[in-house]
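The authors assume throughout that readers already know how a fold can be written as discrete tokens. The format is easy to grasp once an entry is in front of the reader. For illustration, here is how one protein appears when written out as sequence plus structure tokens:
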Amino acid sequence: MSAKLTIGVDLGTSGVRAAAISESIGAIARSSRPIAIETRRDPNRLFFVVMEVLADLATRVRQPIEALAICGTSGSFVPLDQHGNPSGPIVLYSDKAAASAVTTVAAYADPSSPVHGPNSPLAKIIGSQCAQFAFEADFVAGRLMGARIPTDANNALKAGGDPMSLTWHSWTEVCTRNLTRFPKIVAAGKALGNLSKAVQVELGFQNAPIICAGTTDGCAAALAAGLHTPGDAVTSLGSTLILKVISSIPIVSTPHGIYSHRLLDTWLVGGASNAGGAALRRHFSDAEIVALSKKIVPTKKLDLGYVPLVTSGERFPVCDPYLSPRFDPRPHHDEAFLQGILESLVRVEHQGYLALQSSGAPAPLKVSAVGNGTKNSAWMGIRKRVLPAPLAKALFNDPASGAAILAANRSLV
């Protein structure tokens, strides 16, 4: 990693976060802005919040920035018209595709590809009938450059991209009946160009940093954690749970929602559950979670058997579009109810690592964690009790830092 500063931006479900880091010093500065769920789907609003975050970061960093990369929620895309302008709201990773589009993908796509299922980005691209599309990280990066840019292999994976050849599988255009123009695919972290002069001036940057092809939030979390050896694993404890483990070979298991990303010089095998912190926020405010967590004894097991989903449908560790949320029975004490939800989230995480191992991935030797969930000592204590491998401290705790690491390592791709 270069000693010069690089910036990473994370397009999170509930906010935009940015980090400036260097190899010699570590984190230099951070900035973030929340984004309301009702406006999260607006491409223009999302870009405006990114600009706010970067402008604020520019006031905290008083030296040139070498490069910048963006990570976004996996498979979330912006429908575009023939001129490359947004033609509709952002289609998020958690949205379900039309049943007819899912059937079309099932008829033409390779059965072992991770494009199948009700949350398939490829199926949602078909359903949107857009002339073009850009994954949200590419859309934002392109606007920063003032040009249309290729997509990265990580975001393209679940839409039919081949991480080895950096091309779209032949059946992707067959599925869409050639109605949608697919962007070119490049390796995550590839240098694409520079921040436009106009944006540089507006943000107050001292220079125009290189803009690199981005990645998914899960892959960025793995980079942030500092994974480097087969068996090193990381869980992103955010609105959803994302599990990754380093493997020497790619592994795919459609029934378990398992897929493999090529990132720099290794393979990241993992899956993304729909369970996560969003389920907590359905029942408690952030302040209530903090207060009630102090009353929880992590070594005490309740085992209430909840299914911690916000809506019906699960992607991993099982692919079950009909799995329903369950939060009964509810104990009399709120702290017990919270503990029951936290235990259910850890159970999903544990089952996820077992599913990865049964599909051929290395057993986790150590498990790091990133995301806001790491701030909750009760959650972390339950993980220490339940998970099959020792917990390790992550190098950084946020996907934004992972995106910055990706930008610093662009020479490897």
Observations:
- The chain has a mean pLDDT of 93.
- Residues 101 and 123 are 5 Å apart (CA to CA).
- The two ends are 13 Å apart (CA to CA).
- The longest helix spans residues 334-358.
